[in-house]
């Protein structure tokens, strides 16, 4: 991994390299974030954004929200201009995007809203236009069977 | 998959607990729109799993014996991207036909997800989290695929052709546990007890209904006699068609004290679980696992680790495989393909590999981020498929207490705890000393949550949860290794999850050759997550590439 990090730095992929370097520099262990929680029969139990982030999002987007680079990349959420849109962010979480699975199948509207609001106000993001659970609900397909 | 069998029948196989199964089981077909609508109604994760059951209904493998492509056109070349099962099979078979073959692989090893972790192996997942497997010599876990159904003819044939020794993989073990943290005071139950008692009680009820005339409209008088006779045999009912404790019921569900010899123990009959407790426990939901076509006995595994098959094929094509190659762009024109890749060890300017044709087996989760010159149809298909995660955790213990204390030789314990499964080794049974078991095989929410932890935290939690089933865990535990597939640098996920409407819209576009580029892998098959899917898709793709190559050569 270290060699790979150096390769990235040489190629000027600063952001990805930084994330990797932070994790592997000097053989120090990666930052330990407190574990989140475990679900209760298919529902995430945490109701606050920070715990939901630690229980779910950081699996791919990493504890520092800087994403990761392997054969392909997980995007950084830290300082990500796409997060300027609360609707874009909430839609991505709730319905998935590309190869990312939809999370509304195991999160309530409230949970989606609170984790979106958390990510948009942390990790160098300063978007204070919070989204509500009702807004998230409106993103779900509403048609009848 | 590979990892499993996931797919299929996730609802039944990876159940997270009977409570999670709403009443809409039996609807294997579900569209993304319908899925999201039901999600809107709060039906939950079980719906997602049900949506996958259709994928598990794939029939028997259509493998029809060793492929014979005939001769390649003179000087024809194929560039293969990825050295997993799909890429290796293609490299071997195309090479045999006379094609010039080159394989680019991102990892520093062949096999892809067909992978085995042994003592001394190191693995660094995304984020830089590094692990060294500390298992004793001879022990291993397969983080990806780990079993071969008897009807995966392609995989079995490659194992045979490459002389890879196989042994039985114990899937179903009547003495393993089924466990609900919310039933029987959290005490794990033996599969044989739940199995015998569920069948016994159901037979008892059916016999009552039959004798009461409740089935008269459906069953003729003479069939009724046969039905009652079969219920008595199947459910081990007594002369009154009742399921009650007897010598016979103990002969199926087991004794409390087994019969001894000489002046030794007198057998003590065991008492069936009450119907109400059984129904409320939800543990009956695990009874169908061995009925899954994918999990019917017999299942097999390579002796020594699943990677033996991929490695055996790799040895035949090794001179054509380049490791540490990260593909960044795939271009094509009327004359051939041109692939740009970065040497991950050197990392300077991209290198270029050229060939007449390209077989790309890169997972869609990776391929969707690579510049690829194909039409809109294939482009859209690549981006339409979500990748699920899963987590496997291997644990080494000082002694094989599951055998010595609990008399469980192979097979799988199922639980509603986040670890979901404990799989006991099919190798080295009834020997003294250490052992390695699979301490977690998590899907769904639990997979996300385990993935979000550090490898050390995952192992710690697996020991903590497992101790609720095997109290020996804390004392006997030595070390562990945890693989979370969403953090795999070479796949960014476990397998491609095709919902039915996505498949209807995109699958053929994904599999159809675009110019000089064809895709293969489990994601380009109707047996997703299984190695057999990767093999079949590869064979199908190279047949079609070969046909095009012959046609082009003939026209030239």
Give a structural overview.
The complex is a heterodimer of chains A (145) and B (556). Chain A has 145 residues and is mainly alpha-helical. Chain A has 2 domains: 1-30, no CATH class; 33-139, Cytochrome Bc1 Complex, Chain D, domain 2 (Orthogonal Bundle). Chain A has helices spanning 2-10, 14-24, 49-61, 86-95, 109-119, 133-139; strands at 68-69, 73-74. In chain A, a hairpin with a 3-residue loop joins strand 1 (68-69) and strand 2 (73-74). Chain A is globular and about 35 Å long. Chain B has 4 domains: 10-58, no CATH class; 77-108 and 307-387 and 499-555, FAD/NAD(P)-binding domain; 117-175 and 388-487, Polyamine Oxidase, Chain A, domain 2; 189-281, de novo design (two linked rop proteins). Chain B has 18 helices and 25 strands. In chain B, strands 12-2-1-16-25 form a 5-stranded parallel beta sheet, with helices on one face. A 4-stranded mixed beta sheet of chain B has the order 10-9-20-21. A 4-stranded mixed beta sheet of chain B has the order 15-14-13-17, with no helix packed on it. The two termini of chain B are 42 Å apart. Chains A and B meet through helix 1, helix 2, helix 3, strand 1 and strand 2 of A and helix 2, helix 3, helix 11, strand 18 and helix 14 of B.
